[in-house]
Amino acid sequence: MNISINVIIPAYNEQDSIAKVVAEIPTDIGVTDIIVCDNNSTDNTAAVAKAAGAIVVSQPIAGYGNACLKGMAFVAKKDITPDIIVFLDGDYSDYPDEMRYLIQPILNDGVDMVIGSRELGDRENGAMMPQQIFGNWLATTLIKWLHKYEFSDLGPFRAITWKKLMELNMEDKTYGWTCEMQVKAAKQGFKCTEVAVNYRKRIGVSKVSGTIKGTILAGYKIIWTIFKFL
């Protein structure tokens, strides 16, 4: 079975890590395009990503969701759209080669969306801050209680069919992106599963968990998103 996979990587000031991420994406599974969405970086992220072989699209408006939406808009304009979209962060905290495991439930079991769960995999000490671990637990618990769907993580490393991604009508422009995707998938009855992924300390400082402001804003937005779609 020939499949086509596009990888979307939102990136803000990731010049020290983005080439490593791009280089380790497996090319033997049907990946046709690696799309780095440069989210108004003030460093050389765009140039480094392009030199590494990625397609670079610019999103000058700040926001994780804005960057992902820009990547989706690029894909949507293609004459032939891919079968699967994989979302992956540009900080080298995930292991890009594990993408091959993320897509297997879609190919073999007809799953619509696969979340790479850091909770189920091996996590390097210090890779996630205590507030991230607690936030993940709280968010997934609320989704279970309020939306009757069980996830263990809101991890950014995920695969979803292009068709189902379009059905979600994604809107969030900032920190609620991953949560919105999972809540909407639950509400629409998508067939979802999780695959254990490993997680290491990122290169550089997190723009979210690395600051008090980012942590508070992200936590608020995630909780608000969960209740918004009740």
How does the SSE layout of this entry go?
Blueprint: E1 5-11, H1 18-23, E2 31-38, H2 45-51, E3 55-58, H3 64-76, E4 84-87, H4 99-102, H5 104-109, E5 113-117, H6 130-147, E6 158-161, H7 162-167, H8 177-187, E7 192-196, H9 212-228
Tell the overall outline. globular
User: Average pLDDT value?
Assistant: 94
Low-confidence stretches: none
Give the second-level CATH assignment, the architecture: Alpha-Beta Complex
Fourth-level CATH superfamily: Spore Coat Polysaccharide Biosynthesis Protein SpsA, Chain A
Helix content: 25-40%
Largest beta-sheet characterization: 7 strands, mixed
Query: What structural class should be given to the helix and strand makeup?
Result: alpha/beta
The N- and C-terminal alpha carbons lie at a distance of 38 Å
Radius of gyration: 16 Å
Report the CATH C-level class. Alpha Beta
Number of helices: 9
DSSP, total strands: 7
Can you tell me about this structure?
The chain has 230 residues and is an alpha/beta fold. It has a single domain (5-228), classed as Spore Coat Polysaccharide Biosynthesis Protein SpsA, Chain A, CATH 3.90.550. It is built from nine helices and seven strands. Strands 3-2-1-4-6-5-7 form a seven-stranded mixed β-sheet, with helices on both faces. Helix 6 (130-147) packs parallel to helix 9. It is globular.
